[in-house]
């Protein structure tokens, strides 16, 4: 049996045992596929992981950078209390349209909002609103801008907040210090920022599963 088949089988077992999705989540993925969106949403196991992180944080306010069809948004928003708030930033109006429908079908449109436009334009506008500090920030957008997203996450959080940076392995290319590929350069810069910033402590973990070989970084805001 190939390594990738083993990863798929184990992922299926973990998901079916510990984090089965439901019709709302399955419909979100179907609508994403029907609209021709890329099949890059987190898995159900990863979605459950994000929800558990938010619950462990006691999160009331969540920021997501990169919405796609709203699959991860639904997992995260389900961790929030009735008066919680989630803001998700999405570059593509087409993606956002699908996400808004999926979020509404999940009954979460009262607490989850999708804002359309380049995140580096949306983030300063969000900061101007002086929102309550975000307890968790999930970054899953264009990798070249990862260091900028981490910097903005720092501005919009508080001591004890959590920052999750997805897809940091880049197929193993992240270890190549000579790479000039924007996704690798941006990811390495974000990881180095986490390593050296006095207000951050963090780590990165490699993962395998039905999405292949990847990983994420997890950082805690110190002050």
| Computed CA radius of gyration, to the nearest angstrom | 17 Å
Q: What's the overall average pLDDT, rounded?
A: 96
Characterize the main sheet: 7 strands, mixed
Report helical residue fraction: 40-55%
What's the tally of helices? 8
- Give the neighbour order of strands across the main sheet: 3-2-1-4-5-7-6
Distance between the first and last residues' Cα:
48 Å
* SSE succession: HHHEHEHEHEHEHEE
Low-confidence stretches: none
Number of beta strands: 7
Class by SSE composition: alpha/beta
The outline comes out as: globular
Approximately how much beta-strand content do the residues carry?
15-25%
Structure description:
The protein has a seven-stranded mixed sheet with strand order 3-2-1-4-5-7-6, sandwiched between helices. The longest helix has 16 residues, at 3-18. With 223 residues, it is of the alpha/beta class. 43% of the residues lie in helices and 23% in strands. Helix 6 runs parallel beside helix 7 and helix 7 (146-155) packs parallel to helix 8 (182-196). The chain has eight helices and seven strands; from the N terminus they run H-H-H-E-H-E-H-E-H-E-H-E-H-E-E.
Which terms would index this structure?
single chain; 223 residues; alpha/beta; 7-stranded mixed sheet; 8 helices
Condensed summary:
Helices cover 43% and strands 23% of the residues. With 223 residues, it is α/β, with parallel strands linked by helices. A seven-stranded mixed beta sheet has the order 3-2-1-4-5-7-6, with helices on both faces.
